[in-house]
Write a structure and sequence with these properties.
single chain, two-stranded antiparallel sheet, mainly alpha, binds arginine, elongated, two-stranded parallel ribbon
Amino acid sequence: MALWSGRFETGVSEFTQEFGASLMVDKAMYKQDIAGSKAHATMLARQGVISEADRDAIVSGLDQIQADIEAGNFEFDINNEDIHMSIEKVLTERIGDAGARLHTGRSRNDQVITDTRLYAKELADELMAANLKLRRTLVRVAEENFDTILPGYTHLQHAQPVLLSHHFLAYFWQLTRDFKRLSAAKDAADLNPLGSAALAGTTYPLDRSFTTEMLGFAGTITNSLDAVSDRDFLLDLDYACAVSMIHLSRLCEEIILWSTSEFGFITLSDAFSTGSSIMPQKKNPDFAELIRGKSGRVVGDLVALLVTCKSLPLAYNKDLQEDKEGVIDACKTLYDCLVCMEGMIATCAINADAMMEQAKKGYLAATDVADYLAKKGLPFRKAHEVVGHLVLLCDKRGCDLDDLTLEDFKAESDLFESDITQCLDLKSIVAARTTFGGTGNEAVAEQLELAKKTLASDEA
Ligand code: ARG
């Protein structure tokens, strides 16, 4: 019989027992449940609600249960709806009345959300550590390939040359924002709901600040109804995971494109590639595709929780039991994807020659030739048109801008002098982009330093 079976004459069917249970999901929070119960019992004894002997029996009983769970010696019985009832039931079987006093002044409604908040903090910490590791690798790869030039794209068409280091650092900053979002979600979780009981607080003289401190929360939730109903911090965590997965999916898309024979910009290591069961020559970027695919799942986790919370009246409703599965899935998925991405980036070979080869195609110097004229006084719009004519000429001849003679240039504008060749050189084009945040070597060196500083402060 369930711990609440007093007012019932018959039990639920086996099917509904299993249907209503959350144990298989929330047993992941056993450590948090035990910590919450130890804090509650310690506080009850301090307040004179239970005896010190009861407290000692509860605390050592819970320690033993934790050791049993960790040693694989604890039977998770689906007849106990969730981790809270599982642990309390076994505790009471083992220590008798002291165990039956543990739930004084507490409800599973404040218990579950206390556990979930503690667990969310731990999940956020793990994700932040994996995020930092990937960002560190991006910085390293950017530094090691600092001067490598590749075509920058808009509309997936060649646009202007950029440094590969600049390109990788763009992802570094995306992930830096993800780190902030994870950290904000952790802060949102970091408040103590324990002591709110079912919804209205209790008649016992609970010291909520004591459990706040003992459990390491940053503060105590002010409204008991809000405390047991609020799942915003899980939405924050889901959202942080979803956005980070979107970022990874974008990086994956480039990894997939870059490892095609058409691009050939990178070669994934064998450890991050798979073959085909029929085509012996194949080397597929499966893991990048898988991460890209998993982004859909994590976005789904966010949407599912948003809809679960929509229109829910105060205070606790059983709908809320659906909150944990998606969040755990989102966090576990993002964690694995961050680890996989780090390995993939750390081990891939960069084919700088292929990048340079492509950078020579598609008139990447055109903007700089127009700037050359504008700097000599021609209004930029007019300069743009002159260079448009030169590009058309190249198109017709099947050549590039640097195949044109000075006469060809002069035929379009007599402002052109022999120094135009400088504007056609990819290295000078890149280096000339000196604005803060631009792709010029000096600007990127400055950016790299800022990235390292940000990384160091996030690590600290
Ligand atoms: N298993 C429940 C959950 O995860 C615990 C809270 C149940 N409270 C209740 N009044 N039925 O949400």
